[in-house]
Amino acid sequence: MLAQNPVQFAVMAAAILCAIIVHEYAHGRMADFFGDPTPRQAGRLTLNPLVHLDPIGTLMLLFFRFGWAKPVPVNPAYFRDRRRGMLMVAAAGPVSNFTLALVAMAGLKIVGGSLANPLTLFLYFLLQYNIWFGLFNLMPVPPLDGSRIVRPYLRGPAAQMYWQYERYGMMIMILLVATGVVGFILGPVAKWVVGLLDTLTFFLN
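Request: output the structure for the sequence above.
Response:
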């Protein structure tokens, strides 16, 4: 794709960077809001992409549409309510992606035009990548945000099994992506989210 259309690749890369940087920044900002100084001390309360990007994860994102950023360090010991604090911190990332997708949908309706327009193309990629990035991170597979959301509510054998297989989370995640299971599961949901965002911005039609 890079060799065939460098402009499209550059626009796509910019949209991907926006999605992952805002996602990680939201995690850090929410942890800071709940009293955890760890993200601030680590210098993660910034939109500077160099602070958040993982070199290998970024290359994977650009060339294979699957990758990661450097996780924002969080210490739940600072939270008055650990369960609520971790829930809010984990949810902040996907929520920021869906918010950015809503902005992109509104922008597409305002700007209009064909995908030959770099701005329209950027907004299109921004919409798509934020929806997929948000949904993907809500999957309850460690180390994704979904696992942090469900983990505090597991008890007994379910919690023990979850902890036991957590170390295999990355392998499970790669397997789900490589076999197309993620696309099969999230594809219909992504289309529904697009429809929802279209409805929410109906006044711009």
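The mean pLDDT is 88.
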